[in-house]
Amino acid sequence: MSKPLSEIRNFAIIAHIDHGKSTLADRLIQTCGGLAEREMKEQVLDNMEIERERGITIKAQTVRLNWTAKDGVTYQLNLMDTPGHVDFAYEVSRSLASCEGSLLVVDSTQGVEAQTLANVYQAIDNNHEIITVINKIDLPAADVERVRTQIEDVIGIDASDAVCVSGKSGLNITDLLEAICERLPPPKGDVTAPTKALLVDSWYDPYLGVVILVRVIDGTLRKGQKIKFMSNGATREVERVGIFTPKHVMVDELGPGEMGFITAAIKDISETNVGDTITDERKPAAQALPGFKPSVPMVFCSLFPVDSSEFEKLRESIGKLKLNDASLHYEPESSQALGMGFRCGFLGLLHMEIIQERLDREFDLDLIPTAPSVVYKIHKTDKTIMELYNPADMPDVVRIDKIEEPWIRATILTPDEYLGSLLQLCQERRGSQIELTYVGNRAMLVYRLPLNEVIFDFYDRLKSISRGYASFDYQMDGYEEGDLVKMDVLVNQESVDALAMIVHRSQAERRGRHLCERLKDLIPRQMFKIAIQAAIGGKIIAREDISAFRKDVTAKCYGGDATRKRKLLEKQKKGKLKMRQYGNVEIPQTAFIAALKMGDEK
Prior knowledge:
- By secondary structure, the chain is of the alpha+beta class.
- The chain has 14 helices and 32 strands.
- The strands form six sheets. The protein has an eight-stranded antiparallel sheet, covered by helices on one side.
- The longest helix is centred in the C-terminal third of the chain and has 21 residues, at 562-582.
- The chain is elongated and about 115 Å long.
- The protein starts with 7 loop residues before the first strand and ends in a 7-residue tail after the last helix.
């Protein structure tokens, strides 16, 4: 081995969004000499334009740094920059499983937030040694002592030895590096044992094929070695072994405790599942590393091109995105109203937003997304269970015994002046309160909520009610039976499949009325009266009418008997009825886009 295990430190940086994870990673790289001054840029580990623009990390990145500590030993520091958002919680859990310690970064002006809690509990579950880092101490609004107390009260870990730094200016970064070397434990591993490595992440490179980010637990990975993926039994030969400094640097081999990347001429990213175990084909490990599970999409939505001739371009574009993101699921779908498109499954709302934005930016596509929905479990009367991804595929009511919907456990941290409004919002969304605790002038709410009530506009409402001060995080909490119904939208007595949705019976009337009102303003008037109706089965629950264009057929009558006018009006009336019977209502694409926008619900 090139480096003894006692001189290696593997650690992840965990924090809430915007608390300075990536900026702190920049300063650590700069201080350790990973990149020269002229090569540095802000958020150097965020490769995608959308990551840099939004200030979020979407893909996990690793960097190997060398730091000579005060004791004279040159330590190898393997830094893992992880995503902070709840949608990528599984990738975060695998990243944390590859490390022995964590830097918990808390903003000295904001304090503890919802994702701070979620991520630190994951780190504690992985038996991490945690170093508390209070960031942005050079800002005028910084209150280090208040944040220190908050960390101890809310999270319950000792913050008396927290390292106070500024990721922006580089203040006290050397103290943090010393703390990493002193306080974090070295990794364990056996170089003579059968090869066992954790697959942390993977992405597609057009020249190298799939690049796999690995953490070696036992044995070694070297060029020319035949490896086996334990989840699917696929075997490959390693072509390249390297590390990130953050530049790509080729090495001969990776030993126990080390992180790096390998390539093995893999063309399909679906072969390389996050959390899988990689072992030697000839001398395999007896059992895989624990914790592996395939990615499961939580939110579904259909994407249709505005111009139907762009369907093939959409197919090609989604295929290219899938090369880089194995958690994106898609299958072709057709709609009477919108034509051909794809039903896509996402890890969550942020994931859905990012994919749509990338399709728009990188492939120049104009898309119509349908309203997002979740996966329902339908228990039929013949004792079979069906998973429902699309409301249009819902079976007949007489064949359904019960419907189960997914629930989440949500954690909301908010200043106490907004507490009443947020409690009301959660109650409106059928939530049940589990916990309410106070820390100073901040309240922590823990609620159980149905996921389909959250995916529409819950986050937007939460932010507007709290003026942006509340933070929100959630985790899945199983399935539960609910009184759910399919709501159809009828335009001129014809069902529009793209607008169908599954709602709770108690919310159906409100949502149906709101959708009908919105469509009334969006669908252009015709020569005949148009009825817009929301219906559950055969029962109409909301209705709006679009009045017809009127021609004054009596204008030419300037005198004479009143029956002349009446005859002309009766003739017009019959014509209108005939038109209504045979006329088709063309709903413009702009009306669909506006009607399906989810942030406008009142």
